[in-house]
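User: Predict the complex with magnesium ion.
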Amino acid sequence: MTHSRGVRRARRARIGLKAARLGPRDVLHVGSAGLRSRPARVVLSALGIAIGIATMIAVVGISASSQAQLMRQLDALGTNMLVAKPGEAMFSGEEIKLPKDAVGMVGRIDGVEEVGATADLDRSVRRSEKIPEGETGGIAVKAATERLLAVLRGGTAAGTWLNAANGRYPAVVLGHVAAERLGITEPGRQVWIDDRYFTVVGILDPLPLAPEIERAALVGWEGAQRLLGFDGHPTAVYERSTDASVPSVQRLLAPTIDPENPRNVSVGDPSAALQAKAATEGAFSTLLLGLGGIALLVGGVGVANTMIISVLERRHEIGLRRSLGATRGQIRIQFVTESLMLSGLGGLAGVALGGAATGVYAHTGGLPWVVPPWAVGGGFGATLVIGTVAGLYPAVRASRLSPTLALQTA
Amino acid sequence: MSTSERTHLPAQAGARTSTVVRLSGVTKEYAGGVRALDGVDLTVGAGELLGIVGPSGSGKSTLLHIVGTLDRPSAGTVEIAGHDVAALPDRRLSALRSRHIGFVFQAFHLVPGVGALENVAEGLLYSGLPRARRRALAADALARVGLADRMKHRPHELSGGQKQRVAIARAVVGEPDLLLADEPTGALDSASGEAVMDLLHALNEQGATIAVITHDTEIADRLPRQVRIRDGRIVADTTRGKAAA
Ligand SMILES: Nc1ncnc2c1ncn2[C@@H]1O[C@H](COP(=O)(O)OP(=O)(O)OP(=O)(O)O)[C@@H](O)[C@H]1O
Ligand SMILES: [Mg+2]
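Assistant: Here is the predicted structure with magnesium ion placed in the model:
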């Protein structure tokens, strides 16, 4: 036992002078020592980075949420509806009409599950006969088939849809925009169409795939023929098919409706507009992203500044650590770790802040709350890069300090 | 390895005859032409307790820093615990400090806000020992300086003398071959200063090699060996009992 010291000394001599490594826990310990002693400074210097990251996360999160909302809507509405309308006339003055039994013809195409139609009637709708005829409020009067609502996957906000019973009488269903413009909130009211009063029997829910119906007053097919002199030619045929048969239906629609002159029929996909909108929602504002980047940069400069001050203030500590056996590398690691923790804290706060901002926006707008993981990962990764860069120069300065100068009392 | 095995045993002191410090022709010139040390030859054997005395500005701190490898000489050779310092790069020099040298400063340099035990354990941070072992050895060192009941006290809750004893515990916790103290009593009243010197004497009796800078002639006179410096030169080197100059 008495010679154990001698044994140890011999072993020391054998292994020579090799600096021991700091374990991860010790690195965290020395790296956080400076932060723990000055919490207020930590908060202030991490704030810049937090704001930058929060801005970026919120920009990305808000556009991702809006996009998710549109995708969800698209899912519910389906992308398997097509609309056939009369094509552009080759010669002006020539009026192209779809055949009267277009609905029946389309219904016989393979894969088609539902068919409905509307026809534009050159009439106006007003709240009463006293309102001048010119003031239509942009509301179109259309004849509609019974199956139209099913094709659109729409519903009624109030009252009922057109059916075999009310479709023959002076009854009208209003799209939700039309109802709003006429100031009508519930069925039972009457509106003036052509030269008589029609009773409002229903008001529709919004129809994102058919904004033209949202702005229309719809009269039953038979009623329109009987009461408004409608000739029975549809001006828009809406069909819903199985997803798989959409391409073939798209090809067959025009030749089916007008076999002799398919060019007289134009076929459209209303969900295409929504899909395009979803794509643009995904492209977030570069301006805001740029602002976030600038805040991040300013935050990084703030961290570097704090680190330089920290190194100056802690000359004694650095000298002490050197006298205790810290290598230059260990001093560097200490200050880079401190800088990383400082900006990492800012990054964490920024992610939380940006996520919360997105959450508030999504909640108030009724959108799903989406914060893409790549944005969180990228934002946090950026703070780590900034922390390293901002801490490197102060850390190198700290490691180059002469231990004797660092320990001088005055 | 139990803690008792690591404590210095008085019986070993006489048995060790190796040289801990060997300076020859050491000169230190600072930028601007100040020659703080001028051809210093100094040998310190294991188990010695020597005082370094001299007027202000004579080069005492400079000498201590060079012996402690915190600074390099402009000329001359420095050998510490058998290692030629000039040949060592920073990493190995740091390892030398961490294993063989302990420092005590006039201005304690304790870490504020953390307890005495953790301050002492910091002395082993760069030794490569695991944390639990560092804390156990730190508790042991605190007990050796008579502060077993102050483990959790933070620096501002300790008296000046107690702070210096914590600093001494931090310096000796790694059982260095050499303990260097620059004016360890400089910031203390005479009673606390005496307690600190008593502690250094006790550590020396347990086998530690210690060099102390002091202004206080009374303290210096109690030390077995006195090295007197003036203008960067050793002008006297006296060992009690047999005068050498
Ligand atoms: N970093 C430095 N740069 C330039 N000159 C220095 C430096 N450090 C010390 N000196 C000079 O070296 C000489 C010796 O200084 P040193 O600190 O060793 O004296 P000292 O004996 O410890 O004095 P004191 O008893 O006042 O502490 C002084 O003249 C001092 O001005
Ligand atoms: Mg001095």
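Residues B 60-61, 182 surround magnesium ion (ligand 2) (CB under 6 Å).
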